[in-house]
Request: fold
Amino acid sequence: MFTLTLSDFSLEHFMQHYWQQKPVVIRQGFPGWQDPISPEELAGLACEQEVESRRVFKKRGKWQAESGPFESYDHLGKKGWTLIVQAVNHWSPEVAELVKPFAFIPKWRLDDVMISYSRPEGGVGPHIDRYDVFICQGSGRRRWRVGALGGHREFAAHAALLHVDPFEPILDVELLPGDILYIPPGFPHDGVSLEPSMSFSVGFRAKSACHMLSGLADYLIDQDLGNELLTDPKRPIHQHQGHIDGADMARIRAQMQAVLDNDVLMADFAGSFLSKTKCALDLQALDEPLVADALLAELARQPLVRTGGLRCFYLDATVRKGVCYVDGERHVFGAKAQASVKALCDHDTISARQLRGGLQLPAFVEALTQWVNAGYWYFED
Ligand code: SIN
Ligand code: CO
Reply:
């Protein structure tokens, strides 16, 4: 279990003064740190086809990056390379525990837990991310330099490695196990390992308007929505045929705005879109599927655990009808399921007591049974 410990300021102070604004080091944010995964286990994961991984190193002074899966690490030597594995919270329940202390930020903002194992002098080079990241230092020491926002030239140091020009650090720190470095999007940074070390990056993403609107357009097409044509009865005589005038622009904008103002449509879109996972889930479907009664009997004995990385949400506009969005799919269970839907989305581990309203409803029990059979939720024992 990881307990976030802030000694220099409160969480409220962090959110008011640092979150999305400036980088900060949280010394011993996780006192008594123990790596939830070993370098060997991490290297093993990077051999798997479904797991996204990269290795970064220099060859004759030139940056190199290669994508996994990897077969061997023998040729890499003792120094100057880094292995990065994406979304390890999807593959390791122990690593997924590291997401819990960050529950003061909603799950839809979470991206994943990326882990890097670096040999001495290893690092990925100076770069800028479009993420908020809490870099939690695991075993070993790493030196981090962070620059100020703005005006940094980015270039491809290698086809798969975007770097920035050298920068003046505003932070230059050595992280020890249990220390946390928070970096908002846009601040250039560069971490260099001082000894074999592990870094656990809990990353948070925010989508651009472009990404959201393109997702919305795909959603409208898939659901066959928003097909009504623009109307303009009683149009006045137009004076300049080549002019798209202000009144017409207002009609066009109002037509689009009507989609954005449709609370239920937007909730259904946002819930489905934001609950889709970017990286694969480690879904362990049951060899012998349960029937609903067996599921209820087991749930009376032990809680259900949500598979690491599974995203499920509810929104104000639809939760009153018992709607939840699980891994990109919309499910409707009716008003009586409201409290159960909230509990299911708010908690990583969930008991029969927390789900009692929903468990009275055959449709809810059926969905839960299917989710458990498919591996979205599982019983630990
Ligand atoms: C790393 O852990 O080596 C890279 C993390 C980052 O800079 O985003
Ligand atoms: Co970075």
